[in-house]
Design goal:
This protein has about 325 residues and is of the alpha+beta class. It has twelve helices and nine strands.
């Protein structure tokens, strides 16, 4: 019912489900759509009381709701009320930045969203068997095309595969490189001014990946990676018009969050990063980011990865 934009019918369906965490989550979302913010907040808080229910969807909805207010007090109060296992997430870190900025605590907010210091960029040198980085990226693009999406995001002019198989030598070589550089980033958090903000690295993590193909008006929309600790993006194909342009089309943008916090012009600013084929970019998962549409028919292809801390409902892949 929510997908059909029928929030009233969604609420009616929830009445038949009882006071389960899942029903309260849907009820909160429906009430939010109807502009009944206080009731939505209550339903979402009650959903969060169930320790066995995945807290991310309800907490995400709650923080988005509270972030709309020009006064960050309620948002910060909700954040400060979260138990430690929730507070130590990218989701809470990102919205804490918004709350502090709303309250005029700009230095604290900028420490969380340190766009200049927190980014690592490193070029990939592929195994000699591929011959060159250009040949490797061709092979990788072919592997992406041969890995059709089974779980996707419904966005215009895009193909975002949220559950890639990642099979073949190109993916294997890239994943090994991404893991290595992400671990190196964590080992040197002080250099990226993130040791205090991110806190201790997870003892174990899931290496999660997605394939992103954009063209035309395609972009991801402002977002963070709620479940991540750090995130990375490898650009495999960058159209020449982007590589040679002097404008911002096709660029990775960091810091913009006005979709979540209307009217906010954050003191941490915005950082534009021109994609380069063969270069990996790493940053904390709580940094808001998006892509400027290319306006081109040629595809812009990237591979995204998160290091996700292992939680009770997830199984570790490696260490």
């Amino acid at each position: 019912m929510l997908a059909l934009d029928r929030p009233t019918d969604a609420m009616a369906a929830c009445e038949k489900m009882g006071e389960t965490a899942a029903a309260l989550l849907v009820r909160g979302r429906a009430l939010n759509r109807l502009g009944r913010g206080e009731e939505a907040r209550d339903a979402l808080l009650r959903s969060l009381e169930d320790p066995d229910f995945d807290f991310f969807p309800a907490l995400d909805e709650l923080l988005i709701l509270l972030a709309r207010s020009a006064d960050g007090t309620a948002l910060l109060d909700a954040i400060n009320a979260q138990p430690s296992h929730r507070a130590a997430t990218a989701l809470v870190r990102a919205f804490k930045g918004i709350a502090l900025e709303r309250l005029g605590r700009h230095d604290e907010a900028c420490a969380i969203m340190n766009l200049e210091a927190c980014v690592k960029r490193v070029a990939f040198v592929p195994p000699a068997s591929f011959g060159s980085i250009k040949a490797f990226n061709v092979a990788l693009a072919e592997a992406v095309a041969a890995d059709p999406a089974t779980v996707t995001v419904a966005l215009t002019d895009s193909e975002i595969n949220l559950a890639p198989r990642g099979e073949g030598p190109a993916f294997a070589a890239l994943y090994a490189f991404m893991r290595q550089e992400m671990v190196a980033y964590i080992d040197d958090l002080d250099a990226y001014r993130m040791a205090e903000i991110l806190g201790p690295a997870p003892a174990k993590g899931i290496f999660y990946t997605a394939n992103t193909v954009l063209w035309g008006d395609g972009h991801n929309g402002q977002h963070i990676h709620n479940r991540g600790y750090i995130s990375a993006v490898y650009h495999a194909v960058v159209p020449p018009e982007i590589a040679d342009s002097s404008d911002d089309r096709g660029m990775l943008t960091l810091g913009g969050c006005n979709d979540y916090a209307p009217g906010l012009k954050p003191s941490w600013g915005r950082r534009l990063i021109k994609p380069e084929a063969g270069v990996l970019t790493i940053f904390p998962s709580h940094i808001f980011h998006d892509v400027v549409p290319t306006g081109l028919t040629e595809r812009r292809i990237s591979i995204v990865a998160d290091l996700r801390p292992v939680r009770d409902q997830e199984a570790a892949l490696g260490g």
